Amino acid sequence: MTAPHPAPLPAAFRRIGWSNLLAQFSEQIALAAAPLAAVLLLAAGPAETGWLQTAQTLPFLLLSIPAGLAVDRASRRGLMVGSEALRALSLTAIMLLIGLGLLDLVSLAILGFLGAIGTVVYSVAAPALVPTLVPRAQLGAANRWLELARSAAYAGGPALGGALVGWTGAPAAYALATALSILAVLLLAGLPRERTDERPRRDLLHDLKEGAEFIAGHELLRPILVTAIFFNTAWFVLQAVYVAYAVQDLGLTPTDVGLTLGIYGAGMIAGAWIAPTLAQRLSFGTMIVIGPLAGFTAAVVMLLTLWFPTVLLAGLSFFLFGAGPILWAITTMTLRQAVTPNAMLGRVSALIMTATFGSRPIGAAIGAVVAARFGAPACLAVAAAGFLIQLLVISASSVPRLRELPEAA
Q: Less packed terminus of the chain by CB within 10 Å, N or C?
């Protein structure tokens, strides 16, 4: 007998999947173009690109909680449409400023900040909307396809963005990013409208406290949160200086830089593609731990470029950064959706995003300060130390002992 084919995912989810793919491609092209434009057009160094990264990630720290409270009260579809439209407007403004020769680091940082506001709201609303469209048994498959889309964007977006900047200049990269973002808005606008009038209106601080207590008291979500904080801090210490380090210390061209960043996405695709096979052979807890282990290994490989400055080691490092942590993203998102009541998903997602993605501007600022005082190589050592800590945290928790997805709360 042949195994039955899995049921197809709902049409509404497929629309989210395609919009997510376009939005992620747009974001990755722009994120690759921004530091390259800063280095090549504005003569920025590692410290300046570090502060640019800080500005582009600061909304995750400042606005994730307000976004989560809004997600539990307003139309998640409407929030996603509006947030992606805001990002499209910010990309259009950057493109025009470059074309007119008026771009400077301050305007690039401010517009990057505004675009990231859209990313924050989209990122909080999507995980809360998906469980309302997809049966619980298909959550893992849905999250895998979302991560595959993100992986494809991480693979192709930076390489395409770097190539466009190198071949035709930054305006072409931002023009493509803007067009993709507008298409994502149109797809999201076609989602069915939600009924929000029956949701209870409650005290904001009570809701926030309730979500925080749920995470702090959960033996699985708590260590996952702490691990993610250290991972994201260390990752953005590295990200803050990588482009300047690659161009100035490793001697890479913009196309080479885009290629190494694209290899990161290739690793994500490989990890997401093999996830179902690994899930059949490994326990759920082991699948989660693979991410932090691969992250630490990748940081050590990047550290080796100090002694062996080659694009091959940089590419291998980014491949590992993609392949392992994508398994973490798929499994921990599924775990969070499974154990969290749907009415709390917006708040819980927002609190986790505030603590984890909010660590990114902190990591970028650390990278900027360390680079300004000690140079980019010191940032690689600081990042490796952070990746070691996150591996120790998750290994000491009860998460590795999970055999399968736990029951819903």
A: N
Is the pLDDT assigned to residue 241 strictly greater than 70?
Answer: yes
Residue 195: CB atoms within 10 Å = 8
Q: Kindly report the CA angle at 337 between 333 and 342, in degrees rounded to 5?
A: 145
Res 1: pLDDT = 41
Mean pLDDT of 70-89: 86
Q: What is the 3-state secondary structure (H, E, C) of the chain?
A: CCCCCCCCCCHHHHHHHHHHHHHHHHHHHHHHHHHHHHHHHHCCCHHHHHHHHHHHHHHHHHHHHHHHHHHCCCCHHHHHHHHHHHHHHHHHHHHHHHHHCCCCHHHHHHHHHHHHHHHHHHHHHHHHHHHHHCCHHHHHHHHHHHHHHHHHHHHHHHHHHHHHHHHCCHHHHHHHHHHHHHHHHHHHHCCCCCCCCCCCCCCHHHHHHHHHHHHHHCCCHHHHHHHHHHHHHHHHHHHHHHHHHHHHCCCCCHHHHHHHHHHHHHHHHHHHHHHHHHHHHCCHHHHHHHHHHHHHHHHHHHHHHHCCCCHHHHHHHHHHHHHHHHHHHHHHHHHHHHHCCHHHHHHHHHHHHHHHCCHHHHHHHHHHHHHHHHCHHHHHHHHHHHHHHHHHHHHCCCHHHCCCCCCCC
Who's near 306: CB < 8 A, 6+ residues apart?
Answer: 377, 380
Average pLDDT rounded to a whole number, residues 333-338:
84
Instruction: Kindly state the average pLDDT of the residues 255-279.
Output: 83
For residue 238 the two structure tokens come to: 């590295």
φ and ψ at 51, to 5 degrees?
-70, -30
The Cα–Cα gap between 258 and 92 comes to 22
Separation between Cα atoms, residue 21 and residue 90, nearest integer Å: 19
Q: How far apart are CA 40 and CA 165, in angstroms?
A: 9
Give the span between the Cα atoms of 10 and 129, in whole angstroms. 13
Chain centroid to CA 90: how far?
A: 19
